[in-house]
């Protein structure tokens, strides 16, 4: 098979890139090692920047997110037993974020791809990018026991942190920058009304907590937990008990308990690969970078990668220019490192670090008080939270 672009991975980065390329008349195939049901079963975040929403609307996929997405013009910081609202809209000229689950974004993109008749190969095994250091790259894979090969002009690795794309790079091809945090997030999803209309970020001596939601009737809650925490060591009751301890009295009184639809532990880490291009192989989304979820940037970085890369590949075909693909890595990484900076700051602002001796505790409180007292300080947080321009 011969295509212009072979995309490995049917997550948001791969699907959004495929949709953008398809709208530009560029033939792209997507290979995914899992089944469609598995892809849709992944429980992920869903706080979308305006740039991500704009892309969905541009592609004709704005109807569901506009109807079901929850527009948030602020967030709340909880510390010292009280809550303090950061007015995102007021501080950014009316910008906001939209709560719309990554599963729903994926569902919309998958449906659009199927409706347009664009090819996605699910359950593709042993996917291997080859010859990408030359002008005739190819991807080998196995489907139902039969060996297959795709020849393409470009290969995009959008297959996650443990995917085949980055693993195929020769030793020394990239530099990896990483920070592993000494704690994790214990998450619970439940069909209960959220404790608040907006997200609450909790700084508490017992550890961080986050009150989020997926809809007016489905809540997503997180607790800071030890790095080696296990979800099966907790029950929904013990989770809700601990969450109530960390909330302010008013929020704790509004907390509604219910059976857990899902409980899981997510280690916190930051990882950036440089560069995001090797010959005719490009990395996008989690294949190239992971940020702590505190800043709500992971899905949005996948979207901006897709934006930059689609623009670069379209220029290659329309303008016969390599300028865009030559600049892709630097453009994408500039935004990635901005998100890393913000995510690291939000994490340091709200989490308890074991063995810090009290210094971090006092610094956190000074920073939080500055945020709620100073419009200048709050504006910096708000501008980053709603998303910097592409």
Summarize the structure.
By secondary structure, the protein is α+β, with helices and mostly antiparallel strands. The chain has helices spanning 12-23, 36-41, 50-58, 62-68, 88-91, 102-115, 164-167, 236-246, 249-254, 298-318, 323-350, 359-373, 375-386; strands at residues 5-8, 28-31, 47-48, 70-72, 75-79, 82-86, 97-99, 120-121, 125-130, 138-143, 146-151, 154-157, 175-190, 200-202, 209-215, 218-226, 260-274, 277-278, 281-283, 289-290.
Structure description:
This protein is α+β, with helices and mostly antiparallel strands and 390 residues long. It folds into 2 domains: 224 residues, FAD/NAD(P)-binding domain (3-Layer(bba) Sandwich), CATH 3.50.50; 124 residues, D-Amino Acid Oxidase, subunit A, domain 2 (D-Amino Acid Oxidase, Chain A, domain 2), CATH 3.30.9.10. Helices cover 38% and strands 27% of the residues. The protein has 13 helices and 20 strands. A hairpin with a 2-residue loop joins strand 5 and strand 6. The protein is globular and about 60 Å long. It starts with a strand and ends with a helix.
